[in-house]
Structure formats: C-alpha cells, structure tokens
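Researcher: I'm preparing a figure for a lab meeting and need a structural model of a single chain. I don't have an experimental structure, so a prediction will have to do for now. The sequence is pasted below. Please return the structure as tokens so I can convert it later.
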Amino acid sequence: MAERSTAAVDVADNSGDDPLTAKAGKATADGVAEADDTAKKNAQEAGGSKDDTQPSSASELHSGHKLARRYRLEECVTRLDGFSSWRAVDEKLRRAVGVHVLPAAHARARSVLAAARSSALLGDPRFVQVLDAVEENDLVYVVHEWLPDATELTALLAAGPMEAHDAYQLVSQVSQAMAAAHREGLAHLRLTPGAVLRSSTGQYRIRGLAVNAALRGISAERPQRTDTEAIGALLYAALTQRWPYDTDAHGLSGLPKGVGLIPPDQVRAGVHRGLSEIAMRALVNDGATASRLEPPCTTPDELAKAVAAMPRIRPPEPIFTPPPDYQRTTYQQGTYGRPAAHGVAAAPQRVQPPPAPLESRTGKVLKWAVSALLIAALGLGSWQIADKLLSNGNPGGDDPKNTQTANSDNGSGGSGKDKPAAPVPLTVKDVKEFAPDGSFQNADGARNSIDGDPSTYWRTKYYRDGPELAPQISKGVGLIYDLGSERNVSSASIGMRYGKDHTTITLYAADSMTPSGTVDGMKTIATGTTTDKSMKLTAKEPVKTRFVVLWITAMPYSPPDPPSSKGYKQGITDVKFTG
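Model: Understood. Here is the structure written out token by token.
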C-alpha cells in the first residue's frame, strides 16, 4: 500500500497477541513443517520454480529474512496455528513494524488478506494501522505499525487496579473507537488486554482490528454485542484486577467458582459506583444484572453514550511533597503578625531616630528661602491663569464652554468615553475541526482544545516537510469555534503542545460552522508566529462574528510523542477568546 507523501500515520505497534512459549512453539512448528513439506513436494511435482531469495514456507522464516526486499524480520513474537508474528524493520522508511506471515495455501489466508485490507481502509488513528497486505512467493503477510513506547493493558493490570480516572479514560476511548469501527462494518472479536495499548500521553490504541480474529478463524453471530462484552470485561479487570469469569486469563485471577458475576464494587472496596454499573451493563449478556434498572448496553455505541452521560471523573490532585531542605517561614507556619509563643519576648528591633530638625541659623534661613519661592510660584501661576481668561474675553470666568469640571470622570483623571473597556471572556458553545480539503487530522479531539485541561489536546498529524505546510493540505489545518451569538472578538490566548521553531496561527471570522471554500475569502481577525508553547493574538480593531477559525500554517519539528511520531506537528491544548 502506498503511503501519502505529506503525512504519516502515528508510530508503530507491538505486534502479535500471545507470547511465544517453548511448548506452543514446538507443537505448532511441527504441524507447520509437516504442512509445508507437503506443499513443497506438490510444487516440485508440478515442475514449478521458486525465487531462491525467498523462504519456501512460513516455517522456514528466521531472523534476517527479508520480505519484498524491504521488511527484515528481527524477532518472532508469536508462532501459532500455522502463522507467525514478527517484529521487523522497514528498511525503506527505517522504522520498526510488525508482520504477520502465513502460507498462501493456509485455509485462512484469503480471509486474513480481506480483513487486513478492510482495516487499512478505516484509517482511524485510534487503531494500530495496517501498512501493507501482500501475497507473494507462496506467502501471505500483513505489515502493521509497531509502537515501541506503548504499554500493553496486560502489563498495566499486572501492577494493580486502575484509579477511577484511568479506568474512565480506558472505557471511554475504547468504546468510542469500537463504535466508529462498527459504523464502518468492522468488528474486532478478540478484544483482550493484549490488544489494547496505552501511550505515554494516556491515549489508548487498539491493535488487530478484524485481523486477529481472521488469523484464528474467530467469527460471531452478533459481533457488536461480542465487542461490547469484551469492553465490559476490560473495564471490570481495570477496576478489580480480576477477570470477570471463573477462569484465570491474561495474567489475571478469575472470580471464585460458584459466586457468579458480581459487580466490581462488591469485589473490591473503593470502586467507583458509576463505573461499576457501566461494567455490569456491558456484561449483562453473561449473567450480569444492570443495577438501578438501567438498560443493558449491547453495542459499543450504546456503551460510549452511557459513559459520556456520566459525570466526568477528573484526575486526582497532585500531592506536593517539599524537598528535604525546604524551610518553612514564619508566615507559612501561621505565626505571621502574632506575638511569640510561650511568653518568650521577641528580640527588640533597633529603631532609627528621625533626622534632627534644622534648628541652626543656617537651617532657619533655608526654610524661609524655600517658603518664599513657593509663594512666588503660586502667585505667578495665578497671574497666568487670569491673563489666559482675559485674553479669551471672559474676565468673569463664567462661560460654561471654558469651565472644566474636576470630577467629570468620577476622579479617573480623564474622559469616561476614552477609557478602554475591560476585556470580557467569551464562552465557546461548540468546536469542530475545519478541513476544507476533507483531510481531517483528529476530528474526535477537537473538544480537547476547550475542556480547560492542559493535559488533553487536539493534535495534527505529523508531516515530513515544514515548518510551512505544503499546498497538498490546503496550506493549513485548524479548528472552528462557535461563540453562540455574534460577539466582538478582540483577542485570543492559545496554549500549544509543542514549542520550537516555529508555529504560525491566524484567526478568521467565518459565516457558519461549515463555511464553503477556504480561509482566503474570510476576514482576518489577527495573526502571529511564535517559538513558544503559548500565543496571544490581539486584533487591531474588534471583529464582530459568531464563528472563529483558528488556522495553523506552520508547525515546529517535534520529537516522538506516542501515538504521534517525530515530524512537523502541533497540538492545541487550550483556547480562550475575549471581546
């Protein structure tokens, strides 16, 4: 599959599902070798020729082999049921990838190719992307991303139950992603803790969409319900560190036999009640009872909506721990302005005496000289004022046109109409991504730019060319904000994910949330360039509009930030408008 020249997907995946064990490896290798010997014999009898540079079957693959003279196999991570999964290197793009390989004669080879190609068409960054799906030299192989910095949910759960906020993020992100997949007719059917990865920024990525099930020949009559129950099991495990069935699985202990499926808040103390109910609503098909008469969730979309309807669970407040050499001051100890404790008198403070008065003869002369000068100055000022009034033909000074009122501006020292109005914060009612060319960056993350949480953000894809964006992507990317009604927009403060050289942002006034055409026909509010992670844009004159476009035309080169790879990119963490 050809990749676009301007944008890459977001980093790579940690490949297969199950760790390779000696016992499983030996059993499956023997079976594969026998099948491959039969295939080789049939090929020889048919007089066919082979490319000596390629392995004759999947069982002959080993570290160092190259597929398509491009993908060099490094480490086998799974060998099971006639197929193998590898960590490999794409020597053309110099990046790590994952590869699933199976013989072209394998009974499931056609379905694996079809599943991989369907998954690749989805193009959703919340899923580990399929990069290539090829049949070549009697082999079928599927190449996908490899995420070296991501952590499997299996490893996270081995460390203990999740905090409520982390579990909320897990079920929210995974259910939304699977709802989007099912809208395109794609199911996972093998959504286990090993299929979910968490990046260092807290974003969850799902690997093996459709492909993992095809490799194992798994199907389901009601795929939406199957995936919903799997998400419920993941949430249950996150809250309790127990698998919600009576068998051990994925490194977790199952529930005691005979007790049935009990709510998570009855398994472990302190479990969030709302999340416990969500887990039971998703697992209702397996015998769970939805508490409070809430209906069961039978599709990922229903589950995502149920999670969204919950009160938002915020992350725990950070705990400040002072360093060892931290010294409290008297003010911090609460004794500021109080007498010393236990009747101990405070040390007397030396008071400097006032300067001696000018009682000498010289001092008296100096005082009289200063007084005389002040009297002369006052007299001169009065004479000048009187002369000015006489020159204007108003000796009486009673012309109201020339009368000045000292308190005309209530003591502000100037005219009231000249005093600038204090800036007023403007409320944002809605936000969405603005993509005139239809190439969206991260449409589902748009609201992260106004949620008030600096740890969340809307991000762009990463690009190989920059900082200025190429014409192939409309020379820019951005967001459009709805202020609810027409307001005078005078400035905006913008927080960004990445600094360095450089970011250029322009604000435009649009006529709707779905304006036709590009920003070229819109009125400019303000523009600016920065190398920092924040920017203040101020208009020369306030612009009256309801809809504001934030348009990025240059982005800094930034290091890898999973799930985003290194390249020219930017993220918007927080936007506030004033008028």
